[in-house]
Amino acid sequence: MSNKRLKIYDELVAKCIRFERKGKTMPYTSANGYMFSLFNKAGEIGIRFSKEVQTKYMKELDTTLYKSYGAIMKGYILIPDKMLNDLDNLADYLNESYDYVMTLEPK
Fold it and tell me: In whole angstroms, what is the distance from residue 87 CA to residue 96 CA?
């Protein structure tokens, strides 16, 4: 796991005051019983969105579905490296993901 990338993930989550990072070996965020962002062992960040929003962002951001430990994570998109330079903007996406999981039936 890349320490530099983990630091970026931690900085990103720290910009969002409504939730905090969880997980020691597999960092993630969750709310309402749902994970909505993940940091995998390859140092990639995945953020969860509704199906419609996921499709829109995959086109807009020229990215793909997110994979973690070899499995495709349904509902998550891979955050492209180019977005890691603007954490304020990326925090907007993460907050949008939080808002989305808060609309789901609590687990």
Answer: 14
> What CA–CA distance (Å, rounded) separates 101 from 1?
27
Token pair recorded at residue 101: 């999981």
Alpha helices in the chain (DSSP H): 3-14, 51-60, 87-103
Please give the domain boundaries of the chain with CATH numbers for all domains. 3-103 (3.30.1460.30)
Q: Evaluate if pTM is beyond 0.85.
A: yes
Backbone phi, psi, residue 78, to 5°: -75, 125
User: Nearest CA to 68 among 16, 33, 26, 12?
Assistant: 26
For residue range 21-69, what is the model confidence (pLDDT) as tens digits? 999 989 999 999 999 999 999 999 999 999 999 999 999 999 999 999 8
As given in the structure block, the two tokens for residue 67 are 């994979």
Rounded CA separation 10/53 (Å): 24
